[in-house]
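In keeping with the milestone schedule agreed at the kick-off meeting, the structural modelling team has produced records for the first pair of proteins. Each record is given below as a sequence line and a structure-token line. The laboratory manager (R.T.) confirmed that both were archived under the project's standard naming scheme.
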Amino acid sequence: MKGWIIAGGSAKALLAATSICAFTSLGLGQQLYIQESDAVAQQVDEIYVAGLRYLANTQQSNGTWDDTRYGGLPGVVGLAVVSMLAHGEDPNYGPYSQEIHRSLDFILGSQNEKTGYIGNSMYNHGFATLALAEAYGAVDDPRLGPALKKAVRLILNAQDRNPLNAWRYSPESTDADTTVSGAQMVALFAARNAGVPVPQDAIDKGIQFFLKCQTAEGGFCYTPGSSANPARTSIGCLSLALANRKDSDAFKEAFQYLKQAGEQSSYHYYYLYYASQAYFHASPEAWKAWNRKNIKALAADQNEDGSWEGRYGTTFTTSAALLSLALNYRLLPIYERKGGD
């Protein structure tokens, strides 16, 4: 995450209820997958709505947040947008429509018109591209499609120039790491879900880089030859899952490492953002157990104003916390479980 300092398509209709999951209406324009009981569903939504209200109440008129330098970065703004879209209200007329449009205006205004680069780091570019992909087709703004295509082209061009076929801090980087590469991989999958062409070769090359970063214990490290940790392993698990490689030994060994390693303390909310998705894709049973624990922990740590505090500012931390809960709604295309429920 130190590169962050230098500096995840239309929302689909609700998925059909299955034998594992049932729906319950919450009176807020969206529905929630119930894993335990109506009481659990209500608790999740109370936590989530409080977090969204914090983001809405603290957003500035230019679509950013003033909570240290991170609240004004396109990547953080992008994650906040995705957390709003994930709750399911109409992004054009719903209670958070104004905030969504303001932040998308900021992201679009931060994009280099010629190159498609958003912000001044590939961390920012990846998360901002994810926001464009999830907003495209759902938000009434004709600028989104062209901007998304430019952003994807930038990611692909950066990969083509990189000897490791992956990404690091800038589009011109000749080295790579799993955290920056994970942000680009998720953005590419989201863009593909939105209908933007993404060559399979680009996905395969990105996965090959991740495999070079897998340790003998099964976890994923920052760069080849370094040590693994839970946050990076969560990123690796998610990338493999989205690439339809959950049946591979690499995924199985990584998830086993993740379960045994426990939580990530240094980058806790960054870990939660990715770990929730890794557990979700691993199996319904694994995610249900992880989700129960996550709900309890986030409820205890949430501030009275609805926010969470962390090393990258309250906007990033609150957005990451909310997105770790957003799989209870599963409204975003990027949150579909590969291989079914």
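The second protein of the pair:
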Amino acid sequence: MTGATSGYVALLSDDGQENEVLFLEAGGLPCSVDPGLPMPIRGLRAEAYESKAAVYHNDFMSSHWAGLMPQGHVILSNVLFAPLVVDGETAGIIGLANKPSDFTDDDARIAAGFGRLAAIALKNSLAVEARNRAETELRRLAVTDPLTGLFNRRAFFATAGNEVERARRYRRALSCMMIDIDGFKAVNDKHGHDVGDAVLRRCSETAVRLLRKQDTLARLGGDELAILLPETDGDRATVLARRLAGQIAKARVPTDDGDVGFTVSIGVASWSSDDTDLAPALKRADDALYAAKKAGGGRVGSKASAPGPS
């Protein structure tokens, strides 16, 4: 539209100090400058930024601004800069160069108009990105426990339904664990809820490190955690539970009164093809957990499979 043969489009960096090139066309002229390098806001383009208006110069290589060009930059016989203004602030710039004849005020008006259109498109794009980020965050919050970052109860049982269906269809093993922190109320009473929260997080972090990507760890409520173990029979789940209990017993949470250690009781059970969903297996795991706590805590109880017929 203007007759320029070279040009670029750049956006202001997050810190507001430089431009980041989105598009560059050298017009067939030699240019060895890396377009990925930041572009400082200085010279004639700084005037476009500050004035929020298109500016141009028709003998650029003879101007004092030419000395600011990096080595290897394409020769610029003339230049025109038009700002991208979003909500009253310059968010980027369009640079045009090397028109066979001089740039004119009409070219400046054309470039400024295009800049306004580009700014509207940019604003809409930013709005869409912000909406998408908000929607993604809402979806994450809907399935995440805010304290530990683990899945919440809703996400756990949704995953459990899928895993039970998969285990039934392909005749695969499926086990689960119920985990409870021993003496958790006493920790809160003695050290405060901030330390109790830290104990929950440390317990969760330790468990995450020992689990596979396909395993599901969730906080069901309070200090009660649950783990879903696809492709895992009761014996292997019990071995993992003992290892997990041992690692958690080594964990420490620093406090003003010294480090606090803690233990967990774990109940293990396996899903049976006779079970319509995971609830019976979780009940068996919960019973095994209760037995482990009754025996003194820091233990693993196991009801690896469903009880057989009497």
